[in-house]
Amino acid sequence: MVLSFLFVHRLFCSTTMGATLNLVYAVTIILFTISSTSHGYDPLDPFGKITIKWDLLLSSPGHHTVQVKLENMQEYRHIDKPGWKLSWHWESKQVIWDMRGAETTEQGNCSAFASSGTLPHCCLRRPTIVDLLPGSPFNSQVSNCCRGGVLTSMSQDHTNHVSVFHMTIGSFPDDSGEFTMPSNFDIGVPGYSCDNATSVAPTKYSTDKGRRKTQALATWEAVCVYSQFRSSQTPKCCVSLSAFYYRNIVPCPTCSCGCSSSHCVKPGEMPPYLEQKHDPEEEVPPVVECTKHMCPIHIHWHVKVNYREYWRVKITATNLNTMKNYTDWNLVVLHPNLKSVEQVFSFNYKSLTPYHNGINDTGMFWGVKFYNDVLLQAGKIGNVQTELLLKKDMGNFSFREGWAFPRRILFNGDECVMPSPDDYPRLPGYASSSSSSAASSFVTIVFCFLLLLFV
């Protein structure tokens, strides 16, 4: 009888422990997936990157013509104002004689060319290049320039995700004049890191309405990737939840974006920073309204209505940053029912399927041009909202266990802090039973572990 008892307990415990190990394994995979965005790889946009392509168009000793193209190949991350600031390190004594479509922020010491009659555009060993502003003189422009360094994402605006400029490169009088590719690239946007350029197939250009193709003498390409951890050591947004069947609102977790309240602004107060002058070429640090979560952006997901074949969700994004308007903002949401979106009100929507494997659980939302594409700074009108109508998948749909709430939400490509699943709104009468079930499961696991140790 004792052997039978031990056998039954071993079988029960092994089954429970096996399920537990599977659960631990699944949680580990999920945590790895979530944290991967902070290390330069995003599973929701696995091919996302910014490329810097150098095309050597003409070359002779001491005189080289180069075209540089920055291309944002990310689905939902974009470069907002004040824009990119491309810099690199010259490996030899090279100078920039002339530029079209961009300019350097400093000229540097060009005294070595004092006797030449004309000074180079830039003589710095590490120049910093910025895009020209809209409305620049026509003779200074090239195609795809002059947007102030702004690069849109691929999904939001496929026509403005590229910046181009031309350079004429020379060398100091005591240099051989041979062209050498620079190194140590940086686009000057927090969170991005770039590798050194590598040689790739020469770029081809179409002329005569596509009847003839020419090509660059040589082409190099550097790749830049984004890391949320590099961008900021604290999150930038958080999520709160509510539902028609739950009386309370589940707030953003406390201190989601930090706990310091020394620089926050109480509702209704005017931050003193607004009265100060700021460099338009530098992004001003956020000054947020005082909240328990201290996040610049607050996302709220509300399960609004339940129909027979459909259900309705309201999403609200609120700007609590008193120092910034978010232009061309976007939201990325991960939820299994997004494969059955029937209608989206007042927002643009695109389904994201990066792996083309039939899984359609991720969607991107952004504002309508000239209507709500700018999320204004904190205040009465500092929010945007939409409603979704989703068709129920009767095989999976449920209001239980928090199924109706998103798995992940990203604002402008940054992961938002979600409430703990234990705090999600639950159906009436279901919360207590689920809590007791979780507690009993934990006790069972501990009992089985101890039994396996001592039996």
From TrEMBL:
Please state which protein family the record places this protein in.
Belongs to the COBRA family.
What residue ranges carry the coiled-coil annotation?
Answer: none
Q: Please give the InterPro entries that the UniProt record associates with this protein.
A: COB_C, COBRA_pln
Which PANTHER family does UniProt cross-reference here? COBRA-LIKE PROTEIN 6, PROTEIN COBRA
- Its recorded name reads COBRA-like protein
Could you tell me the keywords of this UniProt record? Glycoprotein, GPI-anchor, Lipoprotein, Membrane, Signal
Q: How does it sit in the membrane?
A: Lipid-anchor; GPI-anchor
Gene Ontology BP annotations: cellulose microfibril organization
Provide an example Pfam family for this protein: COBRA
Tell me which domain of life the UniProt entry assigns to the organism this sequence originates from: Eukaryota
* Presence of the UniProt keyword Membrane in the record: yes
| Compartment(s) where it occurs, according to its Swiss-Prot or TrEMBL record | Cell membrane
Could you tell me which residue ranges the COBRA C-terminal domain spans?
A: 236-425
Q: Which GO terms describe its cellular component?
A: plasma membrane; side of membrane
